[in-house]
Amino acid sequence: MFYLCQAWEKMTMAKVKVSSEMYGEAAELFKIASEHTQNESTNLLTLAHSSFCRALEAGTKFETTRNKSMYTKANKHMNAAASYYLKAGFENFSEYTTATQSLFESYVFMDQARRETDPEQQAKYYLMAEKVLQKSADCFAKAKYNEKANQVQRLLRKVKEDKELAISLNEVFHAPVITSSTASFSTLSLSEEKAVGLERFAQMDVLAKLLVQESDATVGQDKTLIIQIVNIGKVPVWLTKIEDIVPMGSQLIRGPDYSSVDNRNLTIKGKQVSPMKIEEIEIVLRPIKKGTLVIKPRITYVNETGRQSFNYPESISLNVSEMVLPGRVATGCSELDNLLLGGIPEHYSVLLMSRSSDERQLLVNKYVETGAKENQPTFYITTNADCVKTLAEAYPSNFYLFLCNPRADAMIKDFLNVFKLNGMENLTNIDIALAKGLSTIDASPDCMKRACVEIVSDVLLLHKAAITQKWLSQLLAELRAKGFTTLAVLNPQMHSQEEVQAILEHFEGEIQICEKETEKGPAQFLRVRKLLNKKYLDAELLLTKEIL
Fold this sequence. Notes:
The chain has 548 residues and is an alpha/beta fold. The protein folds into three domains: 170 residues, no CATH class; 123 residues, Sandwich (Immunoglobulin-like); 216 residues, Rossmann fold, CATH 3.40.50.300. The strands form five sheets. It has a nine-stranded mixed beta sheet, with helices on both faces. Strands 6-7-4-10-11 form a five-stranded antiparallel beta sheet, with no helix packed on it. A four-stranded antiparallel beta sheet has the order 1-3-8-5, with no helix packed on it. Strand 19, helix 13 and strand 20 form a beta-alpha-beta unit.
């Protein structure tokens, strides 16, 4: 606490005196404070403060010196601070950090614009400054720092004015020269000579460029992409479509009002681009899987006669890293863990809603197998042992199989970690077997444990809703109290909608697998539908046996 108080005092003084040295001292004090904290959240928060002060230290030096190395250093520490704030659960602080980072970046672009003598290049730098300033204002507003947002908005208006002036100067510098009308000078006919390259300007022609603030991204982090289109022809054109603008492994969060999404394409409702004018299309993409996203679109446009043409802007790539929030239990399926931002929240109970399928069984197998291999006490309540016989033999000390089947003796050998139950008619027998299993494991709630309850549909068919709800409520409460994270399975096609909803109310989370028609035929899709008070990606995942 002593170091923390000193750090806050030093940071406040640094802000008043605009002192890079004091920001550095505050950063060091926050770092020392983090080494004396016992709580994980507090540790992450103090590390975030330390990184933020380091960023302000470098940023303050950059503002006075315009040294690019200081900007790079500030940017690095801002990224670290934003990540720590997010992991600590302080989303507002993370937004404030991102806003400050964007503000620093705008200074770089404005400085480059002021040094530039070519009006066209100057306009481009002002354009980039405008975009990051808008992001900065939005993030300050989202973080509830409205005065900061207003200050950035005022700066944004000034940048827009400077950009418009640069564009106007560029048009003047590139306007055609007025030729003399004196009759004593003869002119060349088109049959005698042509100006090289000018014929393309007499027809419809556009140039396009993709702009993104930075190429690094994180799963679940929205990225703004700007498609800059310049009509270099002498006739107006109308944009109709941008194909493959949404790469595999991402989803479109926002596009312009005059567009609609068709699979991975953006259909545009006749957006006109006049000759020698610039049109900007801004979209927001959200990566949903780790890896490299390559954005390589094709832009379709037409002239007033309906003649179609295309432009292929240079592709850009996003390097996407995974986001793993603290306190998550990995399911074993990396694609699902991406949607869950690391896995199922610890001690949560989640219901997997799916008809019987190979994909569902593979997902369940991954979940229990991951627990066993990570040496976590893992309970599996099922009616079929075919897929887990080897687990029961290989992990006798931490994998527990509860086999609810009259033919249990014929299905698997006797092991100390295998509990054979003669069906599900007597739920008390299942409870007794679970109690025996619980008595043999580490009872500490801090020890990570997992359970999979695959018999919910069978119990519901046999005992109806009222008894099933009572048994399930007691079971989930007992498992939660013992430190278990639970995945249960329900086939919604076997029950009425009322029964499904009644069961669903007992769970904090819901994952759904459903079948949809695609161009290649029917396919299984997975989506996280609910995760009470926890973050997750609201995106649809094509579920294949390869990713499982």
